Amino acid sequence: MRTSFRWILVAILAIKLALLTAYLTVLSFGGKSLSRSTGKPLLTVFTTFKEIGMIPHHRLSLRIVVENWPSFRPHVRPVVFLNFTDSAMADMARSAGWEVVQMERVNARGTPHLVDMYRTAFERFDSHLYGYANGDLIFDDGIVRTLETVCGQLPSLNNNVLLTGIRTNVIVDLAETETLSPDELLKGDRLKRFAETRGKLFTPDTADYFFVTRDGSSLQWSNLLDVVIGRGGYGTYLVAMAKSHGVNVIDTTGTVLAIHLSEKGVTSHGNLNPDSEYNRVLIGQRHKKKFDHRNGYPGNAKLHTQYDDMGTVKLNKRI
């Protein structure tokens, strides 16, 4: 009798172990879990490209980014907003696997409004998460691993999250472009080694991507100011406002490698534009210069992702 009971316990433990293994497999990277089981991407990520007057540095970044983002399909759907949707640039993007969308509202200097881009993405596409990312970033496969982990835990987070993180700057010398070919950068661990040997994490008061849920989000979009992309303050403003609206902000810097191909001697191209102070002026007028951008720093998020000893992405509370 005792032997039979012992075997029953062993069988129960085996079943529990099998269920746990299956659950962990679903959360692991491999493309067979959430995005395929639900039939929709984990993320719709959108951006825009400079269409006129591109300098050689921008052309180099564009060439690499256009191939990098679609490499994560079907988990990630890349979208680009353009003024000229029948241009050679638009055709190049489509051929690489991008969705091309007509640019909508811009400020007097032609810079797109952030909230409008989110609204268009919400209306036109279906995915678990949506977000803007600067158009000069290239990602490693940590973006998919991280999305899988976070999306697998969305029910426990009330489907109410914002993922953000700090980029890694890599100084690019155009004389060395042969070392920056997409074939070399977009394969496996090469990108990680490239960042480790030539990269430096950018300042803690910055962020370059912002991925949110559409359904279930407590972010009150209609209450946000009309900030524009790529100009100082828009990112920390969005994150700080999301946090104040009760959104679970997650710092994914630890597991998402976002490389920014930086021009030698230039800290930020956004600061070189004539509307570089657009967002700061707008935010200052509304909040009487009392807005605390520190609330929008990725490092101040209560949740963050990190790799464990087995290389699995974990979502943890920040201590």
Helix content: 25-40%
User: Total helix count?
Assistant: 10
How many E strands? 13
Assembly category = single chain
Give the ordered list of helices and strands.
Answer: HHEHEHEHEEHEEHHEEHEEHEE
The general outline is globular
- Average pLDDT taken over every residue: 84
Cα end-to-end separation: 49 Å
Structure class: alpha/beta
- Tell me the fraction of residues in β-strands, as a range: 15-25%
Order of strands across the biggest sheet?
3-2-1-4-9-6-10-12-13
Largest sheet: 9 strands, mixed
Which residue ranges are poorly predicted, with pLDDT under 50 across at least 5 consecutive positions? 7-32
Rg result: 21 Å
Textual characterization of the structure:
This protein starts with a helix and ends with a strand. About 8% of the residues have low confidence. The chain has 319 residues and is of the alpha/beta class. Strand 2, helix 4 and strand 3 form a beta-alpha-beta unit.
Brief descriptors of the model:
319 residues, alpha/beta, 13 strands
